[in-house]
Fold this protein.
Amino acid sequence: MLKKRFLRNKLALLGLVVVVLVVLISLGAGLLAPSDPLKLSISNRIKGPSWSHLFGTDHFGRDILTRVLYGGRVSLWVGVMSVVFAAAVGIVMGAVGGYFGGRLDYLIVLVMDALISFPSVLLAIGLMAVMGPGVQNIIIAMALVGVPTYGRVVRGSVLSIRQKEYIEAAVNAGSGHLKIILLHVLPNTMAPLTVVTTIGVANAILIEAALSFLGLGVPPPAPSWGNILADGRNFISQAPWMTIFPGLAITLSVLGFNTLGDGLRDVLDPKLKQ
Amino acid sequence: MTDHRTGLTSAAAKAGDPLLEVDGLSVSFHLLEGVVPAVAGVDLVVNQGEVLGIVGESGCGKSVTAKSVMRLIPCPPGRIDSGRVLFQGSDLLELSEAEMAGIRGDKISMIFQEPMTSLNPAFTVGDQIAEVFRFHRGTKKKEAFELAVEELKRVEIPDPGKRARSYPHQLSGGMRQRAMIAIALACRPRILIADEPTTALDVTIQAQILHLIRQLQAEIGMSVMLITHNLGLVAAMADRLVIMYAGRVVEEGPVEDIFADHFHPYTHGLLRSVPRLDRPAEELMEIKGTVPKLTELPAGCPFSNRCQQVMDRCRRHAPEFKEVGPGHRSRCWLERMPW
Amino acid sequence: MVTRPVRQSAAGDRPFLSVQGLKKYFPLGRRPLSAQGPVVKAVDGVSFHLDKGRILGLVGESGSGKTTAGRAILRLIEPTGGRVFFDGHDLAATRDLKALRRRMQFVFQDPYSSLDPRMSVYRILKEPVDNFLGRMSRRSKRDLVAETLARVGLSADHLTRFPHEFSGGQRQRIALARGLICRPELMVCDEPVSALDVSIQAQVINLLKKLKAEYDLSLIFIAHDLAVVEHLCDPVAIMYLGRIVEISPKQELYGRPEHPYTQALLSAVPIPDPAAERQRKVKLLAGDVPSPLNAPPGCAFHPRCPWAEAECRQERPELTEVRPGHWTACLRSGGSGRTGGRWPLNQGMDDGA
């Protein structure tokens, strides 16, 4: 029944198509890319888009199309992994706090509120400054920043599910707390979680781009959409293609994930019953 | 001791002229799953000064019928496929929305099951009653509010002056239902349609509300269309009864006749399956099976797949109405009742 | 506070279930109970005994505390006070309730919300089996689930379906199956038929009777519909504002109710028989059903009682046995000042809301 609604929802379908395209293309970077992202070619510097270099070349003569494709891999990987970790921690915190309540919940909410009161990009920058560069660290920093988002959603869901009669029925049937959380509570929080994680990936891509743009993210010469943008910053007037194409890639992916998330939210909205 | 049937003589003596006639009404809903025929060819009459009980289980179409009379069915997804609703010389289904708005609350009023959702939480109870006067009678604001307080007094809400300034959530369930009755009866309508008016209330409050409705009915001289699934309620309140099943009327007649001498097997099943306070040892009869989906009704008589007395004929031809007593008709092929 | 034991029969040994002075208070707001502040006294001293094999009906309107009492008895919510002895075991003192839970099951009121919408019928029924009969083989468990489902009148091909695919009556059967599957000895059913259509109610009531006999159950049947309770239960307990006001054997309930509230309640229930209805005189109660937030002092019923005296405002009546097996909590019944006679018209309306 949900599938039927999903397929009817144009927004969700569009988002899904774009996301799948972006993911497939990035995964297939090795096959699709015309050349090596690190290969320098001084003679080919700052050439506009042509048949041999569809997106043009950068100031080191590297093929931008190739760099965008490989950069996509990194950006998507960082985006998805940071969300996975953030969600994992957030789910545990939210479920435990929401289910057990009391002082534990109070503490958990305190921690999440503290995290969320920092603007996420600033916090990420701060963490990166402390930890140093590298894809690992970026993922950790972004995950930390993202925890409250998922924690709050899960906690809210758990608080309302905890009141439901089938939870009491599970106690009556002899199930212990852990079993109830795993079997009854969490599966019923999946709906809002799906929406938040999808949009979270969009957000993560943007944050990663921002970090790399500022030089705090993926270190060169490895490409990521953010640092390709950073490179192009100095050449905007002479070689606008150096910023346009990575920018388009970011825009497309973010739009795709956001649209998918919005669509999912519509599809899963329980109020929209026929 | 309070007699809750104050001022009422037997049903036959009070039978007046027809006030409202529903003629061949058919209503369907066009949903994602398909077209649902909620009401299929219903005929009913509400006479002057009587209480007509419409009884059935969920999905039988009683609420949809009532709401169709008031033109409260959203179209789409609803659609009135055919029929007429005759009231004071006009067909209500043909009137414009503006004309209908003039009738609702003034000539025909309706009260619902859940007063919390039918009352506007943002306005005081007094304002909501006053609105009826302002809309239908053009009364000025201040005077309308004073009249509203009078109406609250009439429905026996204590301290009506103060209560008029209360919001719905500040009142108890019984009070809210009284407020809703006040709104409905403010302009002394000819007909009150009550859709499960006491289902959400406690039993002792239900008794109070029924007593009130009876009293007001006698005072105003209006007719009541009482929709419920509660057979005890109609035994206490109604003069005539209409039994509905799967969007159709299956039996109709004076209330004593139906309870004593019913003809339709569904009526029989209903009456025998309800536990009676004065006969605690009686076995409860079961009607086998469940109400079929309106989109999957059996051919012929819609009750044929659950009927104990089903005959071959029932499965092939939908039965027609048969006169079985004065003012009493039943839609069944059976010649004689086996009970 | 001394609670007198209420016995329905003269059996010598201990009763199967003994509830003594059960209390459940809910603090308003986030403060714990110890802090001063408004308290909802949902259950305020409920005592009764249940003998094995009997069906006790627990009747009341909203605010009576009957549902809370049912849950507190099985310790689905923690009682604030009082003791519950199940087959001799003090439930409050038992650390590991799991072993006892198998023997005492609760069937919830709303068949739409007591079944996890994301679990198939098979998984719903398997949950208690896994918990209580964990050592059974997978195949035996499956057989047990199928067999229990058949006993409630559903078939094996319903196992893979989800709750939303069933009607209300069918869901209630599934809930009953879940309660029965591990063969409990005591079942507390909370309004099991209230949400159902009239003709389905009869099916489920008859089913309950059959299952009670098959499984040799003792039942507590919680409901607001007196006609249903009277049909099924013996004895019947009437609750008002967290307390039991009357316990009566079935045959005496309709004919000889003692407590004024019971009398009013009985007369308010309409009988599906116009001739009978015409002869009845309804005893109307003034005012609204009060909220347990501010229970009146003394006898909780006195603001609405036509025979209330000064003493009723001060002293809280205890259950007294007025006839064998028939107990009532009214200062004016059982000998002295009688209830009964004319029910006065139009008493001052006291809005307790």
